[in-house]
Amino acid sequence: MNKHSFIIEANSFHNLPISGDFSFNNTNKNLIIFCHGFKGFKDWGCWNLVSNYFCQRGFNFLKFNFSHNGTTVSNLSEITDFNAFRNNNYSIELQDISRVINYVKSSKSILNHNNLYLIGHSRGGGIACLATQNHPEITKLVTWAGVADFEERFPSKKELFIWKNKVTRNIINKRTEVIYPQDYQFYEDFIRNRNLLDIRKSLSEFRGKFLVCYGSLDKVISNDSAFMMHKLVFNSEIKSFRTNHTFSSKHPWDKKVLPSVLEELCKETIKFLSD
Fold this sequence. Notes:
Distance between the termini: 23 Å
Oligomer: single chain
CATH superfamily: Alpha/Beta hydrolase fold, catalytic domain
Radius of gyration: 18 Å
Number of strands: 10
Largest sheet: 8 strands, mixed
Helix content: 25-40%
Shape: globular
Strand order of the largest sheet: 1-2-4-3-5-6-9-10
CATH architecture: 3-Layer(aba) Sandwich
Order of helices and strands: EEEHEHHEHEHEEHHEHEH
CATH class: Alpha Beta
CATH topology: Rossmann fold
């Protein structure tokens, strides 16, 4: 198994770079691109162990930091760029996944692959669903505790009014107690691009195979979201795990093995992708 890190440089259209890495074996011909969730990053919790797990079982595995997730090229595992974080939105993340897909298809990538699959966790699951609109080469899609409707994630009208007047609202990381700023442009961007950011529409038009995985004890994303996503795609499967939103992973994760339920999730995902 080999490891390779990469940077997709900023340009006139995208003002921040994307950092990523992949675990690969030259004999593997299937590529998985993994999308992390809100307040997450590519090296959060068990994601490195997950990457190795898939690679050892026949899948090249690429994970990346969304350009505005708050990490930097010099600090990949902490959210320190609050200016980037406050200016992030769903449209940027959707552009980011296209930048990554175009990168692996370009001559700059050393990854050869026959099949391209997406896995997304939480908000990254919603972004992965949207990516299928622009990339028909995605033949299989997997969500782990995925968001099914971005509009439902916004606060009430009263809270939106307060947010608009203050411009910035504060989001607290319960683990570190660090405050992350989020500007009202996040909501405005969604309203402007509502049709492009319609997860339900994207799923209803997806013609590939779809696996929906959720934790029955998830307190972040409703289990109803998983059921709804499953119904939208004709060729879909759904799997339940008795666990929380992060499938019993946490950050930091100092152990050298996956939590048992996360390993079971990986096994079920590999089984689905191998069929």
